[in-house]
């Protein structure tokens, strides 16, 4: 495996007892990339994040971070990573600066170097004026910025985050993304994050889509959307199976029922809508057409809708 990659994962599997949380997953992330692991709840994102952050040892397979094998050199890999956990990793009863100082000491920083670095990160994240405030008085968005400042304190080459936007309002979410773009641009930092939000994943350079512990798609967002065969047409009806077979018979095309709605993917979808309405108008409650979204990619690869996925069937 090449050391030019920030992350190289080869055939990683992880089980909790009998439950397979990550299955035969292979994946490389280039240096400087913003990479999103997208999947519904229970798809294995946090497990993969835990292995990458060295919190869990890889049970099967090999993981390299900047060329360091997590199995044999976890310390070297850790030194290159700034990690933001999903559960808040900051102490509410300490001030912003106290949190940063404490975290910096854990990474071996001290004295003037630590003070300078804290000041730099506080100012870069627009937190300088809040440095003396207790974390418990901050909004969710500001707290997340404190976590980012903390994670970047020891100048890691990679920022690894589990659901950094969960619980944030859209404004605070944009704010986090602005900062991620900035650290990538100014410091060349590789960003790896997990998310269950389709629109958030679209902002990444590349996306890995997970489903039941497996990687079901891997590419740039536009390329993934382009891989779906044309426009997505969705029909709501009271008898989806019946309508599905009627359409299939009449037009000799691929059509399926996904979680109670009839779906077709067709180039020139706008030409299909009048055709379908003319033939089956009586049975159609609503018909919608759209350019393929990441949810369409997910449906295309798994046969399930993103949100209605049965997470406990593995
Ligand atoms: P995600 O972060 O995508 O929601 P997780 O990695 O947390 O997914 O979970 C993947 C699967 O592993 C789920 O089926 C979940 O119930 C199971 N799982 C996660 N953590 C544990 C654990 N500590 N013990 C047992 N099962 C777990
Ligand atoms: Mg999770």
Describe what you observe in this structure.
The chain has helices at 45-52, 74-79, 96-106, 111-124, 140-151, 170-187, 198-201, 221-227, 240-251, 269-280, 294-302; strands at residues 5-16, 19-30, 34-38, 60-65, 68-69, 81-84, 158-162, 190-195, 206-211, 214-219, 231-236, 256-258, 261-266, 286-290. The protein has 2 domains: 32-51 and 74-224, 3-Layer(aba) Sandwich (Rossmann fold); 229-305, Alpha-Beta Plaits, CATH 3.30.70. 36% of the residues lie in helices and 27% in strands. Strand 1 (5-16) and strand 2 form a beta hairpin. Helix 3 (96-106) packs across helix 4, helix 3 (96-106) runs parallel beside helix 5 (140-151) and helix 5 packs parallel to helix 6 (170-187). Strands 6-7-8-3-9-10 form a 6-stranded mixed sheet, with helices on both faces. By secondary structure, the chain is an alpha/beta fold. The model is unreliable at 309-314 (pLDDT under 50). It contains 11 helices and 14 strands. The structure holds adenosine-5'-diphosphate and magnesium ion. The site of adenosine-5'-diphosphate has 11 residues, from strand 2 and helix 1.
